[in-house]
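Thread: Modeling a multi-component assembly for a lab meeting

Hi all, long-time lurker, first post. My supervisor asked me to bring a structural picture of a complex we are working on to next week's group meeting, and I have zero experience with this. I have the sequence lines for every component (998 residues in total). Could someone generate the structure of the whole assembly? Inputs are pasted exactly as I received them:
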Amino acid sequence: MYGQDLFPLLISASLGGALLSIVTKRWEQACRAISFTAAAVVSLIGLVIALEVLLVGGQVAFTIPTSVAALGHFTFVVDRLSAFFMLAISSLGLCVSIYSIGYTREYAGRYSPATMGSLFSIFLLSLFLVVTASNAVLFLIMWETMSLSSYLLVVYESRNRESVSSGLLYVVMTHLGTALITVAFIIMWLHTPGEHSFDFSAFRELSAGALPEAARAAAFLLLLVGFGTKAGLVPLHVWLPQAHPAAPSNISAMMSGVMVKTAVYMLIRCYFDFLGVTDSWWGLVVLLVASVSALVGVLYALMEEDIKRALAYSTVENVGLIFIGLGAAMVFQSYYLADPAANAHLADLAALALIAVLFHTLAHSLFKGLLFMGAGAVMYATHTRDLEEMGGLAKRMRWTGILFFIGALSISAIPPFSGFVGEWLMFQSLLLTQNINDPMVNVLLPVAVAVLALTGALAAACFVRVFGATFLARPRSKHAAEAVEVPRTMLTGMGIAAGASVLLGILSVFIVPVIDSVTSSVLGVSIASKLVNGLVLMPPAGEFSSMSPVIIGALLLFAVPFAYFATRDLGGRRPVEKGDTWDCGTPLSSRTEYSAAGFSNPINRIFRSIYRPHTEVRTEYTSSTLIKRKISFSSTIEPVFERYLYAPVAALVIALARRVGVIQKGSIQAYLAYIFVILLVLLVVFR
Amino acid sequence: MILELVQFLLILAIAPLVTGVIRKAKALMQSRRGPSVLQPYRDLGKLLSKGSVVSNDASWLFTITPYVCIAAVTVAALLVPVMYAGTFGFLGDLIVLIYLLAMMRFFMALAALDTGSAFGGMGSSREMYISSIVEPTMLLSIFAMALVAGTTSLASISQNIASSGLDLVSPALFLAAAAFFIATLAENARLPFDNPSTHLELTMIHEAMLLEYSGKQLALMEMASMTKLVIFLAILSNVFFPWGIATGAEPLAVLVGALLFLAKITLLALVIAMIESSISKMRLFRLPNLLTVAFMLALLAVVSYYILGVA
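Re: Modeling a multi-component assembly
Sure thing. I ran the full set together rather than chain by chain. Output:
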C-alpha cells in the first residue's frame, strides 16, 4: 500500500506548501506559482490515495499521538467512503489549483498572494482531513479548521464591504451548525457502550441499539440541522448564496464543489454507519426538506442577475437533489431493516439510491467547480458579475465559452453528460418503489419524483439564461466588448474539470461498479452485478429499464457529423454567407436583445406567489407630459426566508442582548464583583 | 433488429407527411383547398438546395445547433415503438427520450438567443417558460404508465399493456393520457399554445426561434420539429393506447400493427387539425393555467398509482 506512506506526505506537503507561500511572499509571481503548484501536488497525492483504496481495497490509517486519553485516538482512516469523497476533493482540488495560478493574477498588487496561497493549502488539507478523521473530537477540530480557513478566504477581499458582511453571516451560521453537531456527538458519546469514547469505532457500536429512542431522534435532528447548515438545505441556506459568490472564484469553486459535500459525507457516515436507519420517518423528513430545497434553490437561481449567485443557488438545488436520493435511501433502508426477509428488494433500492447520491455528488463537484471557475474567468475578463453587463463572450473568449457550455450541459442533465446519469439513477430508485404500505411514503415519493422532474426543466431554463446572457449575442457593456481570453493555466484547470465531467457521464458504466463498492461497504449490499450489464446500466429489478450513456454518446457523436456531411451534399453544395440579423429596419444594438431579467420574467409570473415580485416604473417628464425624458424600471423579488424567518430571530436575539447588556456597566469594580459572586457560587455548588 | 430499424426509418419517412396531413385537414375544415399533403417534402427539398445566411453576431453555437437537434431527435426516434413493441430500448428508456428532446430544446433556445434579435430572445424565453412545466408533465404522465406497466422502457410499456388486454386499464391511464395530450400540443407548438402558421411577433414562440435560420440549416430544424411531432403522436398512440401493436415478429401482426399505427396517428392528426380550426390561441400569460392543469393531472395519475396500487 503506497497510501500508508503517502498520507503523512499529504499532510506535510500541504503544511510545507502553506509555509513556502509565506516565505516567498515578497515575490508575488513566484509565490503564486509555488503555492498553487504545491496544492496541485497535494491534490495528486490525495488522488493516488483515493484511487488506491477504491480500486485495490484495504484502508489507510494514520495516527497522531495525543496526550489526553479521554479524547480517544486521533486517527485518520481512509476507508472506501472516505476515499470516495477524497476522490471528489482531490480531482476538483487539482483543477482549481492549476486554475488559481493564473486566476490570482487578478489580485496582483491589491491583496497578498501569500495569504491566499497559504490559506488555500490549509483549506485543502482540512477538506481531506475532515473526510478521513476517525474520532469525533478530531473531526470537530478539522471541521472548524475547514470552516475558519474558508471564512478567511471568503473575506479575502477585505476592503470589500460585501465580502466582509457575507463572511460574517457565514461564520455565524456555520458555528451554529457546529454547535449542534457537537451536541449530537456528545449525546452519542454518552451512550457509547463500555468506557465512553469519542472514537468512531465506538460510535459504530451504537447502531446495535444502545441508544434510547429519544436520544436517537435528537441525534438525528441535530445532525440534520447541523450538517444541513453547511450543505445549504432550505431554510438554512441563506448564507450560501451570500458567501459562495463573495469569495474569490477559485474558493467559490471549492466551497460549492466539495465543501458542501463534506456534510453529505458525514451524514451518510452518521446515519448509516453509526445510528443505523431504522425509523422510516427520518428518511421522510430528509425527503421533504430536500424537495423544498431543490425547488427553492432552482427558482431563486432563475431570478438571479449575479452570475455567481445564480450558481450558488443552483448549488442549493443540487444539494436538494442529493438529499432527495439520501432520503429515499433512508426510507428504503428503514423498511428493509424492519423486515429483511419480506423486503429484500428494498435493500437493493437503498443501494441504488445511495449510488445515485454518490454519483451526483462527484458529478456535481466537477461541473459546479467548472462553472464557478468559468464564472471566475468571465469576471477576470470583464470585471463584473452582472449578467446584464455581459454578452457576446463566446466569440471573445472562445475556450472559456466552450468549457462553460460543457458545465451547463452537464448541470442541465442533458444526456449523456454526468448530471443526466445522476438524475436517471435517482429517477429509477424512486420509481422502482412498490409495496410500501405507508400513506406518507406513497404521497412523498411521487412528490419527490415530480420535484425531480420540475427542477430538471427549471435548471435547464436557468442555464439557457445564464449561458445565453453571458456568452451569446452582442456585448451589453464596454467591458464585455473588450474582453479577451484568460491565461492558459486557467483554461487548463477548467479543461481538466470539463474532461473529467464528460468522461464521468459517458463512462458511468465503468464508474458505477466502483461506487457500488463504496455503498456496499456502507450498506452491506452489492448490486453492481445486477446494475451493470456490459455497456448498459439496468436498475436491479428485472426488466424495469436500461440505459447506456456510452452508446448514446457514441450515437450522438456519430449523428452530428453525419447530419452535417449528408446535408452538405444533399441538394448540392451551397454557399453560407454572413449577414446582419433581421432587424425590421431599425438598427439592432445591445439594447434590443433580450436581457436576463426579460428572459426569466414569464417564469417570474408563474411563480409569483413564491417570488412576490415588486416592480417599480419611474417616469421623468420634460415640460410636456407627452414627451418623456427618462423611464427607469426596477424589479426585485422578496427575500422570503430572510424577511420572515431570519429577521424575527435576529430581532429577538438583539432584544435579548439589550436586556443582558444591562449588566454590562463598563466599570471594572462591577466586573470584579461579578467574578467574585460567580466564584462564590461555584465554590458553594462544587464544594 | 430489422423490424426495429424499419420502424425507426418509418418515423423519419412519414414525419413530413404527418405535418402535411394536419395542414391539409385544417385547410379543408376552413373551406380552403390547401396544398398537397406532400408539400412538406417539397419544402424540405427546396430548402436543401438553397444557400444560407448566418448572422454576424452568431457564434459557433448557432452553427452546430441544427446538426445537434436533428441528431438528438433521430436518436430519440430509435427508442419509440411504432408498429412492433420492440425498439433499441436497451439504449435508453423514456427518461432518456424526454431528456434527448430537452437537449434539442436547450440548443434551439440558445441558438435563438445567439443572433441577438429580439424575436429570438422572445421565442427562447417563452419556450423555456412553457417547457419548464411541460417537461415535468410529460415525464410524470409517462411515469404513470411506466408504473402501471412495471417498466420505464417505452417498448416494454406497450408490450405489457397491449398483451394484458384491459387488465391494466386504470384511472391513471386516462389522467396521464389527457395530460400527455396537452403536453403534446404545447411541446409541438400547436394551438392554443403557439400558432405554427403565423409569423406575428406577439404570438410566435417556436417560429421565433427559427427566424434566423435559412437554407439547409432551416431544413434540418424543420425536419427535427416534424420528427418530434411524430414521436409524440407515436408515444400517445403506442404507450397510452397500444392495443393492436405487434407483440411478436409475425409478418401479419406487424402489418396489422403498421396499419393500425397509421390509422391512429391519422386520427390524432385530424384531432389536432380540428382543435386548431376551432379554438384560438391563448394569451401567453393565460397558458400556465392550462399547463398546471396538465401537470396536476399527471401528478394525480402517478399518485393514484401509489395510493390505489395496481388495478
